[in-house]
Amino acid sequence: MQILGLVLGVALLAVTLLDAFQTIILTRRAVGRFRLTRMFYLLTWTPWKVCSNLIRDPKRRETAFSFYGPLSLILLLVTWASAMIIGFGLIFHGLGSPFHDSVQARGFRSDLYVSGTTIFTLGLGDVTPSSPWAREMIILEAGIGLGFLAVVMGYFPVLYAAFSRREVSISLLDARAGSPPTAAELMRRHSYEGASEALIQLLEEWERWSAELLESHISYPLLCYFRSQHNNQSWISALTAILDTCALLIAGVQGHPARQAQLTFAMARHALVDLSQIFHQEPVRGFPDRLPPSRYDQLHALLCESGIKVCTDNESMTRLAEMRLLYEGYAEAMSRYLCMPLPPWISDNPRRDNWLAVARLRAQAEESTRQSTEKIARAKGTLHGDHDF
Length: 389
Description:
- This protein is mainly α.
- Helix content is 70%, strand content 2%.
């Protein structure tokens, strides 16, 4: 029985340390279907999602979803620490509980107590080891506990730095594509003279954003659960809107260079497909069409009214449908899994852009400056009038 406890303790400790290494330190995709981190998210995300979806108020529901990402990170660290405590406790039990305990008889409870106080480097001293193996194991556990805490302290800044970089571009997209972002609105706001250069620059930025998303979120998949600052924004909706725009530019828009659209589309699709594979989400088939023929005609009319030259051949819709098949199934799968809705192609009920509050304040400042300038000008005019008189 003691040998079995020793084997189980070593196995649990090895699995926990390997899982923590793959999740925190390893800068590439972690492998293994029975990792502790994967099992943790499988067991916690589904109940959280079900309970959150019972909330009727959209804002409160989104707030409930937003709690999961940061809270799951804390609970994951608790899971790792608990597994290491149990693992070392089983090792101590396999060594025959070699301790002097003044409070209770030797046994597994005493082993767990020693393991817990050692891994958190408390060093209370009320339980003392009575064999050389126990002394050496306590030193080893204390070192692992100290190293684990150090790694965790460096883990949080890396995660939140990656999250902040992701959200900056999403916030900037608000003024360029609406809230939530749509391909029709992005194209409409880039229909002015000389907008091609601005659109190319925007697509270049989103090509790099997609590459950074791929690198950071494959290394740290739990970032996918972190929600954006505003309820009508998400990394999935932003990525899908960019893919929609690129597909539209490639399939049937004239006057805009399609080369950058192809590069951005390839990188954005690569990120979406790889992330869906990380979560073992197969592309969804047979979901409601996001752009039926009637909506396509509406999109075509909207773009034409904005002065954008759209291909009028009968194959343009077919080409666009073929482009959409390359990514929409994956986007729908991730949308359903993370409960982040996909953006429409055309917003029927456009919401007030998040950036308009700032724009309103700026307009008020400009109006105040204009009134002050006019007041000063009138005062000068009055003084000049008195002098002439």
